[in-house]
TrEMBL record:
Domain spans labelled Bacterial Ig: 49-122, 138-210, 229-303
InterPro entries linked to this entry: Big_6, Ig-like_fold
Name this protein carries in UniProt: Bacterial Ig domain-containing protein
Signal peptide residue numbers: 1-25
Keyword Translocase applies: no
Alphabetized UniProt keyword annotations: Signal
A Pfam short name: Big_6
Superkingdom, natural source: Bacteria
Lineage: Bacteria, Bacillati, Bacillota, Bacilli, Bacillales
Length: 304
């Protein structure tokens, strides 16, 4: 409404359902202009999604790249598996073989921020190598962390092709079909792939083994705050195992009176580790790791 009788008075202009403004009355036909400013906030950018390397029906691990120290969660076959991104930006997570065309999902979390999800489909593994060369895969015995040799059985006279973290080593299967190959020191969780060949042109499918945990003290441990501490059940004096829950596939690092012991959490996150006899009052510290380089904070329990 505009008061025509007194152009010096304030007029009120109202727009139903919008806003009301007070302005000085203006001569007829005056064009008025209005502008508005809206304040709003933008949500912080989410982390970049991790990458997933190609996955086939023969794959027993998921590899890819992510942000250093981030926790990567892999979803496959209705189950979740966790791992940590190492200092080189790579991660490695063991999973069971998956069906062709099934989906693998990956996310990463760092400093409370979650990434978007990366999804890949499982491809059917090619069988052309086996059907053409008729070379069977070698059998590799279980191996533990440390510097002991890699052993197993293969075709007599075959040459072994060993891949550890992108580095390659060779050996020869003896006339009795047995082999023993010296390889460098490796931490628990190290993936070792072994194939055999007679000409280094055609190879068998690789056999993959994972170095299991052993009693080992890391030289330069550091704490990763993103890695939650394990839950340790009450411990009684005596020689019963220490039990609790941790991240699936994580390696437990147990300190008792300056001595170190190790174990591995299963796919359900449960662990049970045999430790020596202890008296009431013994302090037990338990942390978890995926690479024996960065560790969670420790959970401390006292034997009663």
């Amino acid at each position: 409404m505009i008061n025509k009788k007194n152009t010096n008075k304030v007029a009120k202009i109202a727009f139903v359902g919008a806003i009301a403004l007070s302005v000085m009355a203006q001569p007829l036909s005056t064009v008025a202009h209005a502008a508005s400013t809206i304040n709003y906030s933008v949500n912080p950018t989410t982390l970049a999604a991790p990458t997933i390397d190609s996955v086939t029906t023969n794959s027993t691990s998921i590899t890819g790249s992510g942000i250093k120290n981030a926790i990567v969660t892999i979803s496959a076959g209705g189950l979740s598996y966790k791992g940590i991104v190492l200092s080189d930006g790579k991660y490695y997570i063991s999973i069971p073989r998956q069906a062709a065309n099934s989906k693998i999902l990956a996310t990463q979390v760092l400093n409370g921020q979650s990434s978007a999800t990366t999804t890949v489909s499982v491809a059917a593994a090619s069988t052309s190598m086996n059907s053409t060369t008729k070379i069977a895969s070698p059998v590799v015995n279980p191996i533990i962390a440390g510097s002991n040799p890699l052993t197993g059985t293969g075709i007599p006279g075959a040459m072994l092709h060993i891949n550890i973290d992108g580095n390659y080593y060779s050996g020869i299967v003896g006339n009795d079909g047995q082999f023993s190959v010296k390889i460098p020191f490796r931490y628990a969780g190290t993936k070792i792939e072994v194939s055999q060949t007679f000409d280094f042109k055609t190879f068998s499918f690789p056999t993959t083994v994972i170095a299991s945990a052993e009693e080992i003290q890391p030289a330069t441990p550091s704490v990763n705050p993103e890695l939650q501490a394990p839950v340790v059940n009450p411990v009684a004096a005596g020689n019963t195992p220490i039990t609790g829950t941790a991240l699936p596939g994580a390696m437990l690092h147990i300190k008792i009176d300056g001595n170190y012991y190790s174990g591995v959490a299963d796919k359900d996150g449960q662990f049970s580790v045999k430790i020596p006899f202890r008296y009431a009052g013994t302090k037990i510290e338990v942390s978890q790791t995926f690479n024996f380089k960065t560790f969670s904070l420790s959970t401390t329990v006292i034997a009663k």
